Amino acid sequence: MDQLLDILKRNRLSVTDGRKKILEMFLKTPGALAHADIEKYTDAAFDRVTVYRTLQTFVDKGIIHNIPTSDNAILYALCKEECADGHHHDNHVHFICDTCGQTTCLDEVTIPEVKLPKGFRPQFSEMVVKGICAACQAKQ
Amino acid sequence: MDQLLDILKRNRLSVTDGRKKILEMFLKTPGALAHADIEKYTDAAFDRVTVYRTLQTFVDKGIIHNIPTSDNAILYALCKEECADGHHHDNHVHFICDTCGQTTCLDEVTIPEVKLPKGFRPQFSEMVVKGICAACQAKQ
DNA sequence: AGCAAATTTGCAATAATGTTGCAGGTTTTG
DNA sequence: CAAAACCTGCAACATTATTGCAAATTTGCT
Asked: What Å distances lie between residue B28 and A48, B72, B129, CA to CA?
């Protein structure tokens, strides 16, 4: 079965053009996508509202996760291993390239544990590294 | 000399009511503040625009830094050591409490280095830990 | 295949958030 | 104290996000 359909079905979501197109974008893109990227995608001219709702649905189902950025943008990326509903186990590092701007999930780099002050109980952590990505480095 | 004035003067900023009030909020607050927090602050009824500009000025001067969050909000917190203009050395971990929602700078917890895949050159990293903070833990 | 129920979409309206130019006011400098 | 520099508030505008509802699509069932 097609990978797209497989993911949608596994999450008990109706298979619609919008969801297929948006999910396809994620599967094709190595890095992360912002809401704006999806809206601007030429092939897929969906209503803004639909994009918002689709992304939210995907996050809820654990198909994609969002990435914190210190500037305002919300970025989304595919979860490597499918996560349980609402619970993401994407404990990998995200890398944002200063040159090309692309955000990459470094699935093989696990977020290290840190020793917190007394009383703090950690449940989940996120880590973002900025710098120059392998692709841009190679071009120079 | 008053700490407020000291900070403003050291950064060659005019001392105005707005800046004093906003900086005072940061000095009083253990955690981080969102733009909305400042705007809602009862005593300080400044124009929205003034708040935006003041926060931007403080960030530019290295008085405050912003904290990435996976939801959309931009949070700001005081820089512990004053940073050089534009260059922040706030390489500490941020903690967001799931119970009270407050964000705390863990100044004493340094972000660990991670080993990146070949070709990636890191320049700056950020780390956010979510869980239950010491204050909320103690209340239970 | 065909039909009813459930779900999803697009539109419209509205809210929330962020930006810019400019006139008037405040702070600083000397 | 006066001039210059800087800051603030207003207004207008741009962008981003949310909600309700009717129409359209998809699904489950026979």
From this structure: 41, 24, 23
